[in-house]
Specification:
- With 181 residues, the protein is an alpha+beta fold.
- The protein has 6 helices and 6 strands, in the order ααβββααβαββα.
- It has a 4-stranded mixed beta sheet, sandwiched between helices. A two-stranded antiparallel ribbon has the order 5-6.
- β2 and β3 form a beta hairpin.
- The radius of gyration is 24 Å and the shape is elongated.
- The N and C termini lie far apart (91 Å).
């Protein structure tokens, strides 16, 4: 049973913001302090990602565990719902919340597929990963992932041709020296 009246609950739920949330601010400050630059809520991309790093062709979504059903199984056909540690679906008006969270999960998957088809990398950071005990590890992991993406995208695709050594000097160097003279 809900301890708040329907009107009080409505006011509480209506006050929850979609932008500039505390988890999003933690990720933004962590990335900025590590030298990453980004744009916020790009309207040109599907799903309006929370952070867009064009240099890395990466979109970062900072998701609330409740709103996006982190580790909660709401897709079962029998209507059974399994809560997770960080996502507990309310018992009041349960069918509404299950349907809402299921729609959010399906929309997230669809938007990330569309972004991948456009050549963007997608990273999802969950609210529970930003708790003080896990925060630094999560931000380090995020920075490592972004650097790896950049290195993989800018790697030399073809290996250099093998050149044989003759008398301690590379043959290609001798040929270049001969052509210059």
């Amino acid at each position: 049973m809900d301890k708040l009246s329907a009107e009080q609950r409505h006011k509480n739920m209506a006050a929850i913001r979609g932008k500039d949330t505390k988890p999003e601010m933690i990720v933004r400050k962590g990335l900025w302090s590590r030298g990453f630059r980004y744009r916020l809520n790009s309207p040109k991309l599907p799903g309006h990602p929370d952070l867009v790093l064009r240099k890395y062709r990466t979109c970062i979504f900072v998701n609330g565990c409740f709103w996006h059903g982190h580790n909660a199984d709401v897709r079962s056909e029998k209507g059974e719902v399994k809560n997770s540690e960080c996502c507990k679906i309310p018992k009041t008006n349960r069918t509404f919340w299950v349907a809402k969270i299921r729609r959010n999960q399906e929309r997230d998957i669809e938007e990330q597929k569309r972004l991948a088809e456009m050549g963007w990398h997608c990273i999802t950071v969950w609210e529970c990963e930003l708790k003080p005990s896990k925060r630094e590890e999560t931000l380090k992991s995020l920075a490592f992932t972004l650097n790896k993406i950049w290195l993989d995208d800018h790697a030399v695709k073809k290996p250099y041709p093998k050149q044989e050594e003759e008398g301690g000097m590379l043959m290609a160097a001798e040929e270049n020296a001969a052509s210059l003279s």
